[in-house]
Structures are given as C-alpha cells and as structure tokens.
Amino acid sequence: MTKDKTRYTDAELEEFKEIILKKLDSAKTEFNTLQGQLKSQGDGSANNNYLTLDDGADTAEKENLNQLAAHHLKFIKSLEAALVRITNKTYGICKTTGTLIPKERLRLVPHTTQTVEAKTKR
Q1: Is 44 a residue whose pLDDT tops 90?
Q2: Domain boundaries, the chain
Q3: Cβ pair 113, 97 in contact under 8 A
Q4: Quick check: 27 and 72 in contact, CB under 8 A?
Q5: What is the dihedral of CA 9, 10, 12, 16, to 10 degrees?
Q6: Which of 63, 79, 88, 105 lies 20 to 30 Å from 21, alpha-carbon distance?
Q7: 71-101: buried (b, 16+ CB within 10 Å) or exposed (e) per residue?
C-alpha cells in the first residue's frame, strides 16, 4: 500500500465484503440461538410470592443472555454498516484521520471505523 492511496480497490473491497458476510452470518446465528434461549426461559413469573435461590440464578442467567444478545445485535448492526461503506466505497477510511486503516486491522476487526492510533488517542 502506498502512502498516496486514498481508498481500497474494488477487488480489495470484495475481499473485505466476504470476511464481513461470514462474520455477519455467524453473528446472526449466535443471536438467534440467544433469542431462542431467552424465549425458552419464559417470562420468569411464578405463582407464589417467594423467591428461591434458583429464581435468583435464573434471573441472573436471563440478564446475562439479554446482555449477550444486545452485544450481538450491536455487532450485527456494525457489520451491516460496514457493508454500506463498502457499497459507498468509503470502507477502510478512518473517520478521525481520513487515512486508510491497515488491511491487517480490517481483517481482524472488519467493522472498525478507526485506525488503532486514532482510537487510542481519546
């Protein structure tokens, strides 16, 4: 990559698109699994007014599943936004510095919008 390069080529964007689509498929599968686990737990209501230790554990597990599902949903939305940037040919350009994000970083974190340097400056 030369210093003058301002965007990735169509072939490079296609490579990133494939990476993103694989991660997106995996994230959606995991999200659907979490949603199924949440539904199988029911609403958590009981007919009696007394909570047992098991009820507390069930509540903690349900909260954990909700947090995981929310994290996966955020990840899915970030990946989908990255696909839009590929379509717009703005993918891989740091939103802070305007420079190209290194390919190595994009391969590891394909939804990123910043270089490591820009992200750590905060």
Answers
A1: no
A2: 10-88
A3: no
A4: yes
A5: 130
A6: 63
A7: ebeebbebbeebbebbeeeebbbbeeeeebb
pLDDT at 49: 52
DSSP letter (8 states) at residue 3 = T
What are the angstrom distances between the C-alpha of 73 and each of 12, 77, 112, 115? 26, 6, 16, 23
DSSP 98: -
Structure-token match 């802070």, residue found: 96
One-letter amino acid of 97: T
Task: Locate 45 and state its tokens.
Answer: 């209501």
Structure tokens at 9: 């080529």
In this structure, are residues 109 and 93 in contact, taking their beta carbons and an 8 Å threshold?
A: no
